[in-house]
Amino acid sequence: MKQEDLEDIIIKMSRNRKNFGEYNKVMLVGTIEEKPTRKNNKFFSTTISVERPSGTVDNIPLEISEKKLEKKGIKKGSFVEIQGDFKSYMKQGHREMFLNAKEVRKIENLEENPSLIYLRGYICHEPYYHETATAHKHITAFTLAIPRNPDNKRSKADYLQCLAWECDSQMIKNCQVGQEVELYGRIQSRHFYPGNDMNVEPVKVCEVSIYKHQVWLL
Question: How open is the CA angle 141-3-24, to the nearest 5 degrees?
Fold first, then answer.
C-alpha cells in the first residue's frame, strides 16, 4: 500500500471515531462467505473474505449485531465495507480472534479495496524470530496486548498475534516484554499443522501482518 493511500485511510478513520477504539481500528472491504448464524441474543457470526493485492484471499471471522444485519440486509454473498476493531477470546484453551463490526456498509462495486488495521499496545511475550528455510525471509512473531480502555489500568485487553517482516522483524526481535508498540498492517488468515503433523486436522489462525516500515517503538 502506498504511503498516500495509507494516509487517506487514516484520515477517513479519524472522521469516524465512534466506530473505532482509541488503540484498535480496522477498515476493510470483502464478501460475506457464510450465512450469518446467531451467536447469542444480540450478535451473529459469519466469515468475510478479503482479497490481498497478490490475489490471496483471507477468511476472517466476523461478528455483527442483529440490528445492523437486518437494517443493512446483509447475507451470504453481500459485498461490504466493515469498520470496527479486532477482538480476542479464549476458547477451549486456544485464543480465537475475530473482527467486531461497529459499522457496515453494503456496496455494489469495488471503488477501493482498503484492508487496514491500526494497533497500539504492549508486547506481552518474548518475540519469536526465525528465518524461512526456502525464501530466507526474516520473520518475528509476537503478541500485542491492546487495552480496551487505555485510561483504566485494570481494563481488559485483547491479545493479538502479529508478524513483522524483514527490517521490521529485525527491530521487533530485540524488544523486551512490556515494550509499547504502534503499527499498521492487515489481518490475514492461514492454516498450520500442530507439531508439523500432516496427519492431523489443520488449525486456522488469524494474525496481523505489518506493512513494511509501519511499526514504531514508543
Answer: 50
